[in-house]
Design goal:
This protein is an alpha/beta fold. It folds into 2 domains: about 5-125 and about 235-260, Rossmann fold; about 125-230, Dihydrodipicolinate Reductase, domain 2 (2-Layer Sandwich), CATH 3.30.360. The protein contains 8 helices and 12 strands. The protein has helices spanning about 15-25, 50, 80-90, 105-110, 125-145, 165-180, 235-245, 255-260, and strands at about 5-10, 30-35, 60, 70-75, 95, 120, 150-155, 180-185, 200-205, 210-220, 225-230, 255. The strands form 2 sheets. Strands 3-2-1-4-5-6-12 form a 7-stranded parallel beta sheet, with helices on both faces. Strands 8-9-7-10-11 form a 5-stranded mixed beta sheet, with helices on one face. The longest helix is centred in the middle third of the chain and has 17 residues, at about 125-145. The two termini are about 30 Å apart. It binds nicotinamide-adenine-dinucleotide. Nicotinamide-adenine-dinucleotide binds near residues 99, 125 and 236. Nicotinamide-adenine-dinucleotide binds next to helix 1.
Length: about 260
Amino acid sequence: MTQPLKIIIHGAAGRMGQRLIQLLTEDPALVLAAGIDRADHPALGQDAGVLAGVGPLGVPLSARFDGHADAAIDFSMPAASLPFAQRCAEQKIPLVVGTTGFDPQQRVQLDQLSSQIPVLVSANFSKAVNLLMHLCGEAARVLGDTSDIEIVERHHKFKKDAPSGTALRLAEVITAQLGSSRLVHGREGVTGERPKGDIGMHALRTGDNPGEHTVVFGLMGECLELSHRALNRDGFVRGALEAGKFLAGKPAGIYTMADMLGF
Ligand code: NAD
Protein backbone atom coordinates (compact mmCIF):
# COMPACT_ATOMS: atom_id res chain seq x y z
CA MET A 1 0.00 0.00 0.00
CA THR A 2 1.30 3.51 -0.85
CA GLN A 3 2.22 5.59 2.16
CA PRO A 4 0.25 8.85 2.55
CA LEU A 5 2.17 12.02 1.63
CA LYS A 6 3.48 13.96 4.63
CA ILE A 7 2.37 17.60 4.41
CA ILE A 8 3.55 20.62 6.43
CA ILE A 9 1.08 23.50 6.82
CA HIS A 10 2.66 26.91 7.46
CA GLY A 11 0.19 29.46 8.87
CA ALA A 12 -1.60 26.48 10.43
CA ALA A 13 -3.60 28.53 12.96
CA GLY A 14 -4.98 30.90 10.30
CA ARG A 15 -8.30 30.78 8.43
CA MET A 16 -6.80 28.95 5.45
CA GLY A 17 -4.45 26.87 7.61
CA GLN A 18 -7.33 25.55 9.73
CA ARG A 19 -9.41 24.59 6.71
CA LEU A 20 -6.33 22.98 5.08
CA ILE A 21 -5.90 20.78 8.17
CA GLN A 22 -9.63 19.91 8.17
CA LEU A 23 -9.73 18.85 4.51
CA LEU A 24 -6.28 17.20 4.65
CA THR A 25 -7.52 14.82 7.35
CA GLU A 26 -10.42 13.79 5.07
CA ASP A 27 -7.95 12.67 2.38
CA PRO A 28 -6.43 9.21 3.00
CA ALA A 29 -3.58 10.06 0.59
CA LEU A 30 -2.34 12.85 2.92
CA VAL A 31 -1.12 13.09 6.51
CA LEU A 32 -0.19 16.18 8.55
CA ALA A 33 3.58 16.19 9.22
CA ALA A 34 3.69 19.57 10.98
CA GLY A 35 1.50 22.58 11.71
CA ILE A 36 3.64 25.72 11.91
CA ASP A 37 2.69 29.20 13.05
CA ARG A 38 4.42 32.27 14.51
CA ALA A 39 6.66 31.89 17.56
CA ASP A 40 4.36 34.02 19.76
CA HIS A 41 1.07 32.38 18.74
CA PRO A 42 -0.96 31.70 21.91
CA ALA A 43 -2.01 28.21 20.72
CA LEU A 44 1.59 26.96 20.28
CA GLY A 45 1.96 23.47 21.76
CA GLN A 46 -1.74 22.61 21.38
CA ASP A 47 -2.65 19.68 19.13
CA ALA A 48 -3.08 21.08 15.59
CA GLY A 49 -6.00 18.73 14.93
CA VAL A 50 -7.87 19.77 18.08
CA LEU A 51 -7.26 23.40 17.15
CA ALA A 52 -8.78 22.78 13.70
CA GLY A 53 -11.75 20.95 15.22
CA VAL A 54 -10.97 17.51 13.78
CA GLY A 55 -9.75 15.80 16.96
CA PRO A 56 -6.22 14.94 18.10
CA LEU A 57 -3.66 14.25 15.36
CA GLY A 58 -0.62 13.97 17.65
CA VAL A 59 0.94 16.99 15.91
CA PRO A 60 1.45 20.01 18.17
CA LEU A 61 1.25 23.50 16.65
CA SER A 62 4.89 24.59 16.58
CA ALA A 63 7.10 27.47 15.48
CA ARG A 64 9.54 25.40 13.43
CA PHE A 65 9.96 21.94 11.99
CA ASP A 66 12.76 19.44 11.60
CA GLY A 67 12.84 16.31 9.57
CA HIS A 68 11.42 15.56 6.18
CA ALA A 69 8.03 15.94 4.48
CA ASP A 70 6.78 15.34 0.94
CA ALA A 71 5.47 18.91 0.51
CA ALA A 72 4.86 22.12 2.44
CA ILE A 73 1.89 24.47 1.96
CA ASP A 74 2.25 28.10 3.02
CA PHE A 75 -0.73 30.42 3.67
CA SER A 76 0.72 32.98 6.08
CA MET A 77 2.12 36.43 5.28
CA PRO A 78 4.94 37.52 2.96
CA ALA A 79 7.54 38.32 5.64
CA ALA A 80 6.97 34.87 7.17
CA SER A 81 6.81 32.98 3.87
CA LEU A 82 10.36 33.83 2.80
CA PRO A 83 12.32 32.40 5.77
CA PHE A 84 10.01 29.39 5.68
CA ALA A 85 10.70 28.92 1.96
CA GLN A 86 14.43 29.18 2.65
CA ARG A 87 14.12 26.42 5.23
CA CYS A 88 12.16 24.23 2.78
CA ALA A 89 14.97 24.74 0.25
CA GLU A 90 17.59 23.70 2.82
CA GLN A 91 15.56 20.58 3.68
CA LYS A 92 14.66 19.86 0.02
CA ILE A 93 10.91 20.03 0.64
CA PRO A 94 8.65 20.95 -2.34
CA LEU A 95 6.77 24.18 -1.60
CA VAL A 96 3.26 25.43 -2.43
CA VAL A 97 2.79 29.16 -1.71
CA GLY A 98 -0.70 30.64 -1.46
CA THR A 99 0.28 33.73 0.53
CA THR A 100 -0.38 36.94 -1.41
CA GLY A 101 1.10 40.44 -1.29
CA PHE A 102 4.77 39.78 -2.09
CA ASP A 103 6.68 42.82 -3.33
CA PRO A 104 8.70 42.29 -6.54
CA GLN A 105 11.96 41.70 -4.63
CA GLN A 106 10.36 39.10 -2.34
CA ARG A 107 8.87 37.41 -5.39
CA VAL A 108 12.30 37.20 -7.06
CA GLN A 109 13.77 35.67 -3.87
CA LEU A 110 10.99 33.08 -3.83
CA ASP A 111 11.46 32.24 -7.51
CA GLN A 112 15.23 31.84 -7.00
CA LEU A 113 14.64 29.00 -4.53
CA SER A 114 13.14 27.00 -7.40
CA SER A 115 16.71 26.14 -8.46
CA GLN A 116 16.80 23.98 -5.30
CA ILE A 117 13.22 22.69 -4.86
CA PRO A 118 9.94 22.53 -6.82
CA VAL A 119 7.89 25.71 -6.12
CA LEU A 120 4.30 26.54 -7.10
CA VAL A 121 3.14 30.07 -6.23
CA SER A 122 -0.40 31.14 -7.08
CA ALA A 123 -2.55 34.04 -5.90
CA ASN A 124 -5.60 31.89 -6.63
CA PHE A 125 -5.63 28.14 -6.00
CA SER A 126 -9.21 27.60 -7.16
CA LYS A 127 -9.11 25.10 -10.01
CA ALA A 128 -12.30 26.58 -11.45
CA VAL A 129 -10.93 30.15 -11.42
CA ASN A 130 -7.79 28.95 -13.19
CA LEU A 131 -9.98 27.22 -15.75
CA LEU A 132 -12.01 30.43 -16.11
CA MET A 133 -8.77 32.26 -16.96
CA HIS A 134 -7.89 29.67 -19.55
CA LEU A 135 -11.38 29.80 -21.10
CA CYS A 136 -11.33 33.63 -21.16
CA GLY A 137 -8.02 33.50 -23.04
CA GLU A 138 -9.62 31.16 -25.58
CA ALA A 139 -12.74 33.34 -25.88
CA ALA A 140 -10.59 36.45 -26.39
CA ARG A 141 -8.52 34.65 -29.03
CA VAL A 142 -11.62 33.70 -31.01
CA LEU A 143 -13.97 36.64 -30.29
CA GLY A 144 -11.60 39.40 -29.22
CA ASP A 145 -11.68 41.32 -32.51
CA THR A 146 -15.44 41.55 -32.65
CA SER A 147 -16.62 41.60 -29.04
CA ASP A 148 -16.94 44.21 -26.31
CA ILE A 149 -15.35 42.74 -23.19
CA GLU A 150 -16.47 43.70 -19.68
CA ILE A 151 -15.41 42.16 -16.36
CA VAL A 152 -17.76 42.31 -13.38
CA GLU A 153 -16.51 41.21 -9.96
CA ARG A 154 -18.40 41.07 -6.65
CA HIS A 155 -16.87 40.75 -3.21
CA HIS A 156 -17.75 41.31 0.44
CA LYS A 157 -17.97 44.87 1.70
CA PHE A 158 -14.84 44.49 3.88
CA LYS A 159 -12.48 43.96 0.93
CA LYS A 160 -9.80 46.63 0.92
CA ASP A 161 -8.80 46.70 -2.77
CA ALA A 162 -10.68 47.05 -6.06
CA PRO A 163 -10.74 45.59 -8.59
CA SER A 164 -9.75 42.18 -7.24
CA GLY A 165 -6.36 40.65 -8.11
CA THR A 166 -8.22 37.89 -9.95
CA ALA A 167 -10.16 40.44 -12.07
CA LEU A 168 -6.88 42.16 -12.98
CA ARG A 169 -5.34 38.80 -13.89
CA LEU A 170 -8.36 38.03 -16.11
CA ALA A 171 -7.81 41.36 -17.89
CA GLU A 172 -4.12 40.46 -18.39
CA VAL A 173 -4.98 37.07 -19.88
CA ILE A 174 -7.45 38.71 -22.28
CA THR A 175 -5.01 41.50 -23.19
CA ALA A 176 -2.33 38.90 -23.99
CA GLN A 177 -4.67 37.63 -26.73
CA LEU A 178 -5.84 41.07 -27.95
CA GLY A 179 -2.32 42.49 -28.22
CA SER A 180 -3.34 45.71 -26.48
CA SER A 181 -6.29 47.06 -24.51
CA ARG A 182 -7.32 49.92 -22.24
CA LEU A 183 -8.82 49.17 -18.82
CA VAL A 184 -11.82 51.41 -18.08
CA HIS A 185 -13.01 51.36 -14.47
CA GLY A 186 -16.77 52.00 -14.23
CA ARG A 187 -18.69 54.26 -16.59
CA GLU A 188 -20.48 57.57 -15.97
CA GLY A 189 -21.91 60.61 -17.77
CA VAL A 190 -22.00 61.18 -21.53
CA THR A 191 -19.54 58.49 -22.46
CA GLY A 192 -20.27 58.35 -26.20
CA GLU A 193 -19.94 55.20 -28.25
CA ARG A 194 -17.89 52.47 -26.62
CA PRO A 195 -14.33 52.54 -28.05
CA LYS A 196 -13.02 49.31 -29.58
CA GLY A 197 -10.34 47.62 -27.47
CA ASP A 198 -11.58 48.83 -24.09
CA ILE A 199 -11.99 46.30 -21.28
CA GLY A 200 -14.68 47.56 -18.90
CA MET A 201 -14.03 46.73 -15.23
CA HIS A 202 -16.79 46.91 -12.60
CA ALA A 203 -16.37 46.15 -8.89
CA LEU A 204 -19.44 45.54 -6.69
CA ARG A 205 -19.09 45.40 -2.88
CA THR A 206 -21.96 43.85 -0.94
CA GLY A 207 -22.48 41.84 2.26
CA ASP A 208 -20.23 38.84 2.88
CA ASN A 209 -19.84 37.69 -0.75
CA PRO A 210 -16.68 35.47 -0.93
CA GLY A 211 -16.07 36.40 -4.57
CA GLU A 212 -17.67 36.26 -8.03
CA HIS A 213 -16.16 37.03 -11.43
CA THR A 214 -18.07 37.30 -14.71
CA VAL A 215 -16.47 38.11 -18.05
CA VAL A 216 -18.89 39.30 -20.74
CA PHE A 217 -18.00 39.02 -24.43
CA GLY A 218 -20.76 41.08 -26.10
CA LEU A 219 -21.21 40.73 -29.86
CA MET A 220 -23.84 42.08 -32.27
CA GLY A 221 -26.80 39.74 -31.89
CA GLU A 222 -25.31 37.49 -29.18
CA CYS A 223 -23.40 37.47 -25.95
CA LEU A 224 -21.08 35.01 -24.18
CA GLU A 225 -20.69 35.20 -20.40
CA LEU A 226 -18.17 33.14 -18.42
CA SER A 227 -18.71 33.16 -14.65
CA HIS A 228 -17.22 31.75 -11.48
CA ARG A 229 -18.75 32.01 -8.02
CA ALA A 230 -16.90 31.08 -4.81
CA LEU A 231 -19.25 29.84 -2.09
CA ASN A 232 -16.53 29.58 0.59
CA ARG A 233 -12.73 28.99 0.92
CA ASP A 234 -12.83 25.30 0.02
CA GLY A 235 -12.00 25.76 -3.66
CA PHE A 236 -8.70 27.44 -2.73
CA VAL A 237 -7.95 24.84 -0.05
CA ARG A 238 -8.65 21.83 -2.28
CA GLY A 239 -6.56 23.35 -5.09
CA ALA A 240 -3.63 23.93 -2.70
CA LEU A 241 -3.79 20.35 -1.36
CA GLU A 242 -3.83 19.06 -4.93
CA ALA A 243 -0.82 21.27 -5.69
CA GLY A 244 1.01 19.64 -2.75
CA LYS A 245 0.35 16.21 -4.26
CA PHE A 246 1.38 17.48 -7.70
CA LEU A 247 4.75 18.85 -6.47
CA ALA A 248 5.72 15.84 -4.32
CA GLY A 249 8.58 14.03 -6.03
CA LYS A 250 8.93 16.59 -8.86
CA PRO A 251 12.37 17.95 -9.84
CA ALA A 252 13.32 21.47 -8.72
CA GLY A 253 11.77 24.28 -10.77
CA ILE A 254 8.88 26.74 -11.01
CA TYR A 255 5.48 25.17 -11.59
CA THR A 256 2.14 26.86 -12.29
CA MET A 257 -1.53 26.03 -11.83
CA ALA A 258 -1.67 25.69 -15.63
CA ASP A 259 1.01 22.94 -15.39
CA MET A 260 -0.99 21.22 -12.68
CA LEU A 261 -4.25 21.44 -14.60
CA GLY A 262 -2.66 20.45 -17.89
CA PHE A 263 -3.47 23.57 -19.97
P1 NAD B 1 -4.89 34.53 8.50
O1 NAD B 1 -4.44 35.86 9.00
O2 NAD B 1 -6.16 33.95 9.02
O3 NAD B 1 -3.74 33.44 8.73
C1 NAD B 1 -2.37 33.70 8.59
C2 NAD B 1 -1.61 32.84 9.59
O4 NAD B 1 -0.21 33.05 9.40
C3 NAD B 1 -1.94 33.20 11.05
O5 NAD B 1 -2.23 32.03 11.81
C4 NAD B 1 -0.67 33.85 11.54
O6 NAD B 1 -0.43 33.68 12.93
C5 NAD B 1 0.37 33.10 10.69
N1 NAD B 1 1.67 33.76 10.72
C6 NAD B 1 1.93 35.10 10.81
N2 NAD B 1 3.25 35.30 10.94
C7 NAD B 1 3.84 34.08 10.93
C8 NAD B 1 5.18 33.64 11.04
N3 NAD B 1 6.18 34.51 11.20
N4 NAD B 1 5.43 32.32 11.00
C9 NAD B 1 4.42 31.43 10.86
N5 NAD B 1 3.11 31.79 10.76
C10 NAD B 1 2.82 33.10 10.79
O7 NAD B 1 -4.96 34.69 6.91
P2 NAD B 1 -5.67 33.73 5.84
O8 NAD B 1 -7.02 34.27 5.52
O9 NAD B 1 -5.54 32.32 6.27
O10 NAD B 1 -4.77 34.03 4.56
C11 NAD B 1 -3.40 33.76 4.57
C12 NAD B 1 -2.78 34.19 3.25
O11 NAD B 1 -3.34 33.43 2.18
C13 NAD B 1 -3.05 35.65 2.89
O12 NAD B 1 -1.90 36.19 2.25
C14 NAD B 1 -4.21 35.57 1.89
O13 NAD B 1 -4.27 36.66 1.00
C15 NAD B 1 -3.82 34.31 1.17
N6 NAD B 1 -4.91 33.62 0.45
C16 NAD B 1 -4.58 33.09 -0.75
C17 NAD B 1 -5.50 32.34 -1.45
C18 NAD B 1 -5.08 31.69 -2.75
O14 NAD B 1 -5.88 31.01 -3.40
N7 NAD B 1 -3.80 31.83 -3.13
C19 NAD B 1 -6.79 32.14 -0.93
C20 NAD B 1 -7.10 32.70 0.31
C21 NAD B 1 -6.15 33.43 1.02
